[in-house]
Design brief:
- It is a single chain.
- The protein has four domains: 221 residues, Spore Coat Polysaccharide Biosynthesis Protein SpsA, Chain A (Alpha-Beta Complex), CATH 3.90.550; 68 residues, no CATH class; 62 residues, no CATH class; 67 residues, no CATH class.
- It contains twelve helices and 22 strands.
């Protein structure tokens, strides 16, 4: 009996360390690494999307990070079916950073691709990324656009970079201000990170991926993107507040490290999120300093400035439309959209900006003081007072009369009205419950019930 138990334990150990009939002897071209914790209901779709890739020469390293649901059973089932799967079992939850580093250490591929256990890769994701590496020997990491699984907005909204990156594909500058490189679709050269001892650092918790790309850039690596979607992603906005506070704190630390390559910034210059004006002011300093220090390509930093900042920052409005973001700048006595050079007429009323585009009805935008951006602001807004926030809802499309979006964030949903002054909001994000609000006639706000 004891021999049977030992034999069973040995078999399970082999499955978790190597995968079925796929131990330490094979050297695949790509190592796909994924960590998962208590996502049994989402795992099959993520796993199948990798196993069904058009490019077949890969190993799939999956770390079960101490899951307490039936994740282990699901992973063992797939490992029995496909020998490319290698499993690692953490006896307790160690976190994403520790799990990713275990995967990096185990990976034998020439290239390593990141996969999240709640996402879904497009079938040609690996094939398209490998083609970029074959055609660009100087590129160390590549990624692509991402679609949002749970939102029906147009794909353009979810492309993870701006017109500058479409044209120039240089992230060594934009990464100073935020993580512009799409982690869920990323792949990188294994020898580069191993030669430079690049790993995920626990001191950068909640922004460990941002720090990872920073390390590649600081070691002279070039990272670029494919201007087409490679991965369907699931956005998480229900983490505890402490997580986002940690993310902001860590991001500021990384921003400072990027800017410090040029000059030692004042603490007031370092922000978790950079409004357009603050970013442009820093870029103006860097352009002068970089001429001597030559930290990045002077041509690229000047081009980035020209494409992201107006000639006179103080006489410009940064406007955010659902389909685009752009400056409206003043030149002489006329205003125009910076990227298209379209002449526009503007009228400023307090924190409202009314813009008359050519051959279009006047469009109203409202200033968000936190971002310094003017967001699209439709007529007849609804003020909601939620238990956790207060915001205005506006109609992004007048033809969809019951469809509204929040002003401060990108949450949208359908409103059902009742005769007694109640409204029900069914948000696009299916993880949100249907929420009920009732009109307070005194304040003219809808209060959550």
């Amino acid at each position: 009996m004891n021999k049977k138990i030992l034999l069973g334990a040995a078999t399970l150990s082999i499955l978790f360390c190597c995968g079925i009939a796929y131990c330490h002897f094979s050297k695949p071209t790509v190592s796909v690494i994924m960590s998962t914790y208590n996502r049994a209901h989402l795992l099959p779709r993520a796993i199948k999307s990798i196993l069904n890739q058009t490019y077949k020469d890969f190993e799939f390293i999956i770390v079960d990070d101490g899951s307490t649901d039936h994740t282990e059973k699901i992973l063992l089932g797939y490992a029995k079916q496909d020998g490319r799967i290698k499993l690692i079992k953490n006896e307790k939850n160690e976190g994403l950073i520790a799990s990713r580093n275990k995967s990096l250490k185990m990976a034998k591929g020439k290239y390593i691709a990141i996969m999240d256990s709640d996402d879904q890769a497009f079938p040609n994701r690996l094939e398209k990324s490998l083609k970029v590496f074959e055609e660009n020997k100087d590129v160390q990491a590549v990624s692509g656009a991402t679609y949002d699984i749970e939102n029906d907005l147009s794909p353009e909204v979810f492309l993870s970079w701006d017109d500058y990156h479409k044209i120039n594909n240089d992230f060594s500058i934009s990464l100073m201000f935020k993580n512009t490189f799409p982690n869920p679709a990323a792949m990188f050269r294994a020898d580069f990170i191993k030669n430079h001892n690049i790993t995920y650092n626990k001191e950068y918790e909640a922004a460990e991926d941002y720090d990872f790309w920073k390390q590649i850039v600081f070691n002279g690596g070039k990272i670029i993107t494919i201007y087409e979607p490679l991965t369907l992603i699931r956005r998480h906005i229900t983490n505890k507040p402490e997580y986002y506070e940690k993310m902001d704190e860590t991001s500021k630390k990384i921003h400072k490290e990027f800017i410090s390559r040029f000059y030692e910034p004042e603490e007031s210059e370092i922000m978790s999120y950079y409004p357009p004006m603050a970013k442009c002011n820093i870029l103006q300093k860097i352009i002068g300093i970089n001429k001597t220090k030559n930290v990045v390509s002077q041509e690229e930093v000047e081009r980035f400035y020209l494409q992201n900042c107006p000639a006179n920052v103080k006489e410009a409005y940064y406007v955010k439309h659902p389909a685009w973001e752009d400056y409206i700048s003043k030149e002489g006595d006329k205003y125009f959209r910076q990227s298209t050079k379209e002449t526009v007429q503007i009228e400023e009323k307090g924190n409202l900006l009314i813009v008359q585009f050519e051959n279009q009805p006047a469009t109203k935008f409202k200033l968000n003081p936190e971002t310094e951006k003017y967001h699209l602001y439709g007529d007849n807004p609804i003020v909601l007072k939620h238990s956790q926030w207060e915001d205005e809802l506006y109609q992004p499309n007048p033809t969809k009369k019951d469809y509204y979006c929040r002003f401060l964030v990108q949450d949208c949903g359908k409103i059902s009205r009742k005769e007694n002054g109640q409204i029900f909001v069914k948000w696009n994000n299916p993880s949100y419950p249907i929420e009920k609000f009732k009109l307070d006639k005194k304040t003219k706000k809808y209060i959550q019930e």
